[in-house]
Design goal:
The structure is a homodimer of 150-residue chains. Chain A is of the alpha+beta class and 150 residues long. Chain A has two domains: 42 residues, Winged helix-like DNA-binding domain superfamily/Winged helix DNA-binding domain (Arc Repressor Mutant, subunit A, Orthogonal Bundle), CATH 1.10.10.10; 80 residues, Alpha-Beta Plaits, CATH 3.30.70.920. Chain A is 37% helix and 30% strand. The two termini of chain A are 32 Å apart.
DNA sequence: CGTGAAATTCCTCATGA
DNA sequence: TCATGAGGAATTTCACG
């Protein structure tokens, strides 16, 4: 991971379909050298995957929702992690500092779907107190990559 | 945006370097038809860009931080949006429901950088009360796409 | 670790159904 | 809207500096 690698990553983030020759021209390397660096970064896990950023509304997920919650006292955090992993609407779930130890970010099609998601989380049996926050607009929207179906 | 388009997007999200022939084989379409659908989705803005997902730690941004804040009463929300747009560490900034109207997500290299970022936001002159939350671990990490340099 | 050229694979585009 | 096929690019590989 030297500076050259970082420049290549920046260019790929902008447009990962760029030709190796183009990238090479911009960073001052032969196409095959660029190719070799990309191959290494993929192998090292620096690059996790080549993907597409999409418009969430076009995929019928216009609502961005944050859930902050505490688990029930007897809950097993490991089991909770597994219970929510793989939920198609949950984009992120973090264990965080503060009074509400869990922060979940999800995207849904309608407000009704918020309740459905909450019920599904509740079904794990670990849900304690919780708080729902809805995004009204976004000054910086973030990158949306659709879930991959299994 | 029919179901065929959705399947193609799912496959591209998984690996956007897949050959058109592969995708066509999986969804039952000729390579040129897949190409045409992708071209249309890019033109329509359904696909925003082809990009790469990376490991934030490998790019020296291991710390995930959430800021919740209120603006000062006299603050102009539009000016605030512009002030934070383009900040390299701010991945997301949403106007949300609830007692803390703004939610910012950022990635930084060290805890010291949290304070730097806060000071930069404060420099806009709009920052009121605020609360910092640090992610300890992530059950669902989310997708990290590095910022593109201007 | 980087290069350049050969060999392969892929994309593009015009045409027709 | 989709499929076919030819021509032109791009990627990949590899022997060498």
């Amino acid at each position: 991971m030297d500076d050259m690698d970082r420049r290549i990553i920046g260019l790929l983030a902008e447009d990962s379909r760029r030709a190796l020759a183009d990238i090479g021209g911009l960073v001052g390397l032969a196409p095959s050298s660029v190719n070799e660096r990309i191959r290494r970064m993929v192998a090292a896990g620096v690059i996790r995957r080549f993907t597409v950023e999409t418009d969430p509304s076009a995929l019928d997920l216009p609502l961005l929702v944050f859930l902050r919650l505490v688990l029930r006292p007897e809950a097993d955090a490991t089991a909770f992690r597994q219970a929510i992993a793989g939920h198609p609407r949950i984009l992120e779930c973090h264990h965080v500092t503060g009074a509400w130890p869990w922060l979940i970010k999800l995207r849904v099609e309608t407000v009704a779907e918020i309740e459905v998601a909450l019920d599904q989380i509740r079904a794990s049996g670990f849900l304690g107190q919780h708080e729902t926050t809805i995004a009204l607009s976004s000054a910086v929207a973030g990158v949306f990559v659709p879930a991959t179906m299994p």
